[in-house]
Amino acid sequence: MFQTVALVGRPDDNRIATLVADIARHLCARGKTVLADPAMAGELPAAVLRVPEVDFAKSARLLLAIGGDGTLLHAARLSLQAASPCPVLGVNRGRLGFLADIRPGELTERLNEVLSGHFQREERSLLEARLECPGQPVRTMVAVNDVVLQNDQPGRMLDFESAVDGRYVNTHGGDGLVVATATGSTAYALSCGGPIVQPDLDVMVVVPICPHTLSDRPLVLRRDSRVEVRLVRRPRARAQVSCDGVAFGELDADSVLSIGPAEAKLVLLHPPGHDYFRVLRSKLHWGRGAHAVPAEQDQESD
Fold first, then answer.
1. Side-by-side strand order, sheet with 219-222
2. Where do the domains of the chain lie, and which CATH numbers do they carry?
């Protein structure tokens, strides 16, 4: 299974490059075709095919993301370039890592399980952002985690209006807004006070960033909702929009940002026995007190 595997990681990180080389040797020993970007550092086996990342999804049957959640989000964007999304499996070498859930110490065992067909397959819903500016073509971008509207003028409050499915919701004052998928509920939205959402729920979360009014609270909406954001007309009213941390465009008082469900879905693979709540306990240090189960404490330690 998964005869062709593409390795995705930061090419300028020597720690990642060393792990990529180890994984490449293991995959080649199992007779797999291995793809790596030409910029990837490290001593890779001669059998590894050097292919630009943008072409990975054309021939790979599995994208292996080695790094943190940022690397996995990058691999997800590569995956979505194919007509049929290529599955993504994450090896966590980052700091927090809610998405990349294989630890280096268990890499060989877990990777062998997945290559042998023993894994959990999961589809994650995505968002599509649309930016409509007068006199310009409509731009679109897909987000795995979130679409973020942020003030580009530090020290100044951003005033904007939100609507859901054409119905006015609120006029906000603050630093911006996060519209997140269930997957992205544990990312930027969480740090802004948003809820943790079980990832298989088809919902989106709308979370104000540093709201000026304490009554401006997060909302949980159906995934098929459409959120529209417009800036209140003020002198020099302007904001930046990003998708998963990648710059998308600029919003001004004459533009409209629209966020709704994307048609495509991200396919994630997990090793056997993957437990989302165990991941939460591990990453958020839940259950580490006197009432925690000792066996779980040992298993979940980083």
1. 219-222, 203-209, 176-181, 146-151, 238-243, 246-252
2. 4-118 (3.40.50.10330), 126-265 (2.60.200.30)
